[in-house]
Amino acid sequence: MHSTHLLLEEPIRMASILEPSKPSFFPAMTKIVGTLGPKSRSVEVISSCLKAGMSVARFDFSWGDIDYHQETLENLKLAVKSTKKLCAVMLDTVGPELQVLNKSERAISLEAEAFVTLTPDQEKEASSELLPINFSGLSKAVKTGDTIFIGQYLFTGSETTSVWLEVTELKGDDVVCVIKNTATLAGSLFTLHISQIRIDLPTLSDADKDVICKWGVKNNIDFLSLSYTRHAEDVRQAREFLSKLGDLHQTQIFAKIENIEGLTHFDEILQEADGIILSRGNLGIDLPPEKVFLFQKAAVYKCNMAGKPAVVTRVVDSMTDNLRPTRAEATDVANAVLDGSDAILLGAETLRGLYPVETISIVGKICAEAEKVFNQDLYFKKTVKYVGEPMTHLESIASSAVRAAIKVKASVIIVFTSSGRAARLIAKYRPTMPVLSVVIPRLKTNQLRWSFTGAFEVLSLIACEHFMLCAFIFIKFLLFILHLDHARCLFFCL
Length: 494
Fold this sequence. Notes:
This protein is α/β, with parallel strands linked by helices and 494 residues long.
């Protein structure tokens, strides 16, 4: 039986699988987003992460204050300078996230079949019988029989460190639940997720807006990860807010799909967002386990056809504590790439995991191997057919450039661009060779001094779908080309 997903001639020689992978001049085209935190915020570790393949640094404001993240960002800048590897910055909002607060940080033991009360009174101490939460409307949102999941933020889903609850009684603002499994909650902050229940809180909270104004503007962030995106209007409101904040009008918004409501309005959200993050942690709670793969494949396909990046999360959870991924996780990463995912987002694995650098390295190697057997020819035909006729002039030029590059077996496609639009369109068609984007600086003046723009376009492109390199300075670019010995290059200028 011949697979429609493999580019290699079948049947594959099993002996060839055991052969060492040939070294490549370019790293994997699938991007890796790393979350920086306690185990990955020093200059040395960040430098190693960049060398291992991280191209986007994610700053999660669900924990840590502005000063903490600013210090981490300054370390990132030093690492970028020392390694000479570009890295984009992503700010991840908190949104309508429900949290259990444990001020004492003492471990909380929960026994199966016992009862625990969830209360909005945040002044009370967390214990095995009482858990204070940050939402006063929980008793109005749930009903008897509803399922609630609680775990450490960026939880792994382990049944010993996370707990399932079932609502049994509503007492005023308090919610009484029966514990379904024995677990120990350790730490100061836990995420609370209610399956298929709408939480009446704004997607972009006042706290999120404050962080964006104080931290995002100061650091001119490249991406905003909009947590718990439920409607296209959420993206429009976020974009309107960013447009009023100086240079942040360029910041790209990646809608994070985390629940049934976001899934239901996925098509409308995709039209408004610059990219999609499939947050499989929470989706895995809202959806039946047997349905998760179906949503992933459908959502990634829609992103591919729209030419917008699709980012998949929660792929190697076990590497939070282990040096190697499980067999299922390694296969999951490869399948995500074969599905058409543009990037892999690492959360707990790099934030508090013991092996952040090794995790990025292994995920990158798996992605590179999967890319070798990605059926680009079939993908190209599907994309062209989906776009249909008549094509726009730019779409026609981009698809023709990719077709020509494949026909002449070009080693690389070089795109000269100022906005990045043409380069993104070429990447949409997933050529087999790397796309090198040379961003042409724009010269501006305010009558007092001259300035160049274009750095944002560079950083957004290196984190976008299947881009390999963006050169901002022509001299460096020409030196780079001279080192591509006998490489066949297809130049595309627009």
